[in-house]
Amino acid sequence: MNLYLVTLMRRAGFDPAVVPRHHQFLEDLRAQGRNQMSGGFGDKSGGAYLLRAVDTAEAQAIVARDPAYTSGGWEVSVREWQAR
User: Fold this and answer.
1) What's the pLDDT tens digit per position in 42-69?
2) Which domain holds residue 49?
3) Residue 84, pLDDT score
4) Please, are residues 52 and 6 in contact by the beta-carbon 8 Å criterion?
5) Lesser CB count within 10 Å: N end or C end of the chain?
6) For the chain, how far is it from start to end, CA to CA, in angstroms?
7) How far is the C-alpha of 69 from the C-alpha of 15, rounded, in Å?
8) Mind spelling out the 3-state secondary structure of the chain?
9) Looking at residue 22, which CATH number applies to its domain?
10) What is the tally of structural domains in the chain?
């Protein structure tokens, strides 16, 4: 599997009620062995998670189910990360 860095930056007017659902989504991914690590940025502007997926298409399909993405409250990017 490949690694994908998913960054989420809060947009003006994001709904804080989505955050617990987003956290549960990340925990579900962790239980599946898909979320290697995740966390928020110190300035509260957003966060990131390290996703395991077969390819970019699968990574984007997984991220498309994230409540942070589906709510429209965050700007989300998915990049393959060739970390060592």
Assistant:
1) 999 999 999 999 999 999 999 999 999 9
2) 2-80
3) 79
4) no
5) C
6) 14
7) 12
8) CEEEEEEEEECCCCCHHHHHHHHHHHHHHHHCCCEEEEEECCCCCEEEEEEEECCHHHHHHHHCCCHHHHCCCEEEEEEECCCC
9) 3.30.70.1060
10) 1
Which residues have CB under 8 Å from 37's CB, separation 6+? 49, 50
pLDDT for 80: 97
Taking only the tens place, the pLDDT of each residue in 2-56 is 999 999 999 998 999 999 999 999 999 999 999 999 999 999 999 999 999 999 9
Q: Distance between CA atoms of 58 and 73, rounded to whole angstroms?
A: 22
User: pTM of the full predicted structure?
Assistant: 0.94
Q: Identify residue 61 by its one-letter amino acid code.
A: A
Q: Which residues pair with 75 in a beta bridge?
A: 9
